[in-house]
C-alpha cells in the first residue's frame, strides 16, 4: 500500500471547489477550459437555432394542420351511425329551370356547374331509403316536384357516376358535365407540389433533429475527454499542449464514453416522451399534440420550454414536474462519465451501477455539487443573467463556462472517492494507474 499513495484526498465540498479553482487559475489550463466552454456554447447556440427552425416549420405550415384536421375522426353521433352505410348506385341527374340551387350531402356543400341549357341548374338526387333517415314521402327515391318547384318546370334525367379523388369529389355525367366539391378545387399539379414541399420540410426537420443528436453526443464526448486529459495531467504535474489535449481527449473520449452517452441520452429522451404521453394524453387536437411532442423531442437538448397557445397551464405543470424528474434522473448519471474514463473495461450498465455506488459513498458532497451544477447551469439562472446583462448569448457563454467548471469538480470528486474506495479494498489507484489511463 505504501507504493500506491492516495491519488487525491478531498473530503468536503469546499476542498473540491478550492482545488477546482486552483486548476482553473493556471494560465494554460484556463485557456484550454475557455476553448472547451466555447465548444459547449457553440453547441448550445446551434441547438437553440435548430429548435427554433423546427418549431417554426411546424407552427407556420397550414398544410400540416389541414392534413391532421382531415385525418382526425369526427365525434360519433347517432345521425352519423345511421348514415354510414352508403349505397353506391347510379342516382338521377335532374336539370331544373330555376336560378340557383346548392345542396348539402354527407357534410359537403355542392354547387352546380352550368349545363349547355340556358338557365339550367344541376340537382343531385341520391338514395332516399327510409333506413338512412329519410322521410317515407321520398322512399321511392323520387321527390314531389309540385311541393318544391313552381309549375311548368321541365325535367330531364341523365345518369352519372361518382369518382372520388383525394381532396376533390368529381361527378361525371354522360354529356361531360362536372360537379366539384366547393372549396376543394386544387389540381393534381398543385397537390403534387404541396406534397413535395411537405416531404421536403419533413426531411429537413428530420435532418436537423439528427444533426442535433449527433452534434450533442460528439461535442459532449470531446469536451469530457479533453477535460479528463487536462485534469489528469495537472494532477501528475505534466505539461501538455492544447493540441495534444484535444487530440488525446477526442480519442480517449470516443473509446470510453460513446456507449455511456448514447445510453444516457436514450433513457432521458424516453422518460421525457413517456411522461409527456401520460401528461398530455387528454388533448384531442392532433395538430396541437404534434407541436407539443415535437417540442418534447427537443427538450433534452434545448433549454427552451415548449409553448403551444391554448395549453399554457398544462405545459407549465409539465415543465415544473419534468424539471424535478430530470434533476432526479441526473444523479445516477452524475459520476458516470468519469467512471467510464477511469474504468474502461466496464459495460454501460456496470458504469451506471458503479457510478451510483461511488455516489452513495459520499452522497452529501456529490449531491451538493450536482445540485449546484443544475442551479447554475439551469434555465432559471439563464433567464436572470439574460435580464441582468441584456443579452441571452452572453448568459449562455457564462453558463457554458460554469458547466465545464462543475465537470472538473465532479471529476475531482470521482477521483477522490475512487482512490478512497480502492485503498479500502486494497486495490491500487494512484499515479501509475492514472498514467496508464492516459495512454492513447
TrEMBL record:
It comes from the Eukaryota. Pfam families: DUF7813. The keyword Transmembrane applies. This is Uncharacterized protein. InterPro entries: DUF7813. The keyword Cytoplasm does not apply. It comes from Mikania micrantha (bitter vine). The chain crosses the membrane at residues 198-223, 315-340, 367-388, 394-415. Keywords: Membrane, Transmembrane, Transmembrane helix.
Amino acid at each position: 500500500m505504501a507504493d500506491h499513495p492516495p491519488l487525491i484526498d478531498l473530503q468536503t465540498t469546499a476542498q473540491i471547489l478550492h482545488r477546482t479553482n486552483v486548476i482553473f487559475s493556471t494560465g494554460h489550463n484556463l485557456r484550454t477550459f475557455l476553448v472547451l466552454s466555447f465548444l459547449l456554447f457553440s453547441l448550445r447556440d446551434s441547438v437553440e437555432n435548430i429548435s427554433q427552425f423546427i418549431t417554426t416549420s411546424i407552427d407556420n405550415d397550414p398544410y400540416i394542420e389541414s392534413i391532421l384536421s382531415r385525418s382526425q375522426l369526427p365525434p360519433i353521433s347517432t345521425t352519423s351511425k345511421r348514415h354510414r352505410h352508403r349505397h353506391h348506385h347510379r342516382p338521377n341527374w335532374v336539370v331544373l329551370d330555376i336560378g340557383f340551387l346548392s345542396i348539402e350531402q354527407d357534410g359537403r356543400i355542392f354547387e352546380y356547374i352550368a349545363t349547355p341549357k340556358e338557365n339550367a341548374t344541376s340537382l343531385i338526387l341520391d338514395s332516399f331509403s327510409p333506413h338512412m333517415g329519410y322521410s317515407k314521402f321520398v322512399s321511392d327515391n323520387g321527390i314531389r316536384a309540385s311541393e318544391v318547384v313552381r309549375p311548368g318546370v321541365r325535367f330531364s334525367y341523365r345518369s352519372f357516376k361518382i369518382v372520388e379523388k383525394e381532396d376533390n369529389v368529381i361527378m361525371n355525367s354522360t354529356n361531360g358535365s362536372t360537379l366539384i366539391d366547393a372549396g376543394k378545387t386544387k389540381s393534381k399539379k398543385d397537390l403534387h407540389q404541396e406534397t413535395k414541399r411537405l416531404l421536403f420540410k419533413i426531411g429537413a426537420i428530420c435532418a436537423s433533429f439528427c444533426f442535433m443528436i449527433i452534434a450533442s453526443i460528439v461535442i459532449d464526448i470531446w469536451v469530457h475527454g479533453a477535460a479528463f486529459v487536462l485534469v489528469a495531467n495537472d494532477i501528475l504535474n505534466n505539461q501538455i499542449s492544447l493540441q495534444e489535449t484535444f487530440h488525446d481527449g477526442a480519442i480517449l473520449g470516443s473509446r470510453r464514453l460513446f456507449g455511456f452517452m448514447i445510453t444516457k441520452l436514450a433513457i432521458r429522451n424516453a422518460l421525457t416522451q413517456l411522461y409527456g404521453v401520460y401528461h398530455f394524453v387528454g388533448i384531442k387536437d392532433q395538430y396541437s399534440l404534434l407541436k407539443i411532442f415535437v417540442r418534447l423531442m427537443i427538450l433534452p437538448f434545448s433549454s427552451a420550454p415548449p409553448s403551444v397557445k391554448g395549453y399554457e397551464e398544462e405545459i407549465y405543470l409539465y415543465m415544473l414536474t419534468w424539471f424535478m424528474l430530470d434533476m432526479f434522473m441526473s444523479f445516477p448519471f452524475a459520476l458516470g462519465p468519469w467512471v467510464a474514463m477511469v474504468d474502461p473495461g466496464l459495460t454501460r450498465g456496470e458504469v451506471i451501477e458503479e457510478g451510483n455506488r461511488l455516489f452513495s459513498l459520499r452522497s452529501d458532497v456529490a449531491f451538493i455539487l450536482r445540485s449546484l451544477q443544475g442551479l447554475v447551469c439551469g434555465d432559471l439562472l439563464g433567464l436572470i443573467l439574460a435580464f441582468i446583462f441584456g443579452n441571452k448569448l452572453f448568459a449562455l457563454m457564462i453558463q457554458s463556462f460554469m458547466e465545464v467548471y462543475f465537470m472538473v469538480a465532479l471529476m475531482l470528486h470521482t477521483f477522490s472517492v475512487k482512490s478512497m474506495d480502492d485503498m479500502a479494498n486494497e486495490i491500487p489507484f494512484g499515479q501509475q494507474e492514472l498514467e496508464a489511463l492516459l495512454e492513447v
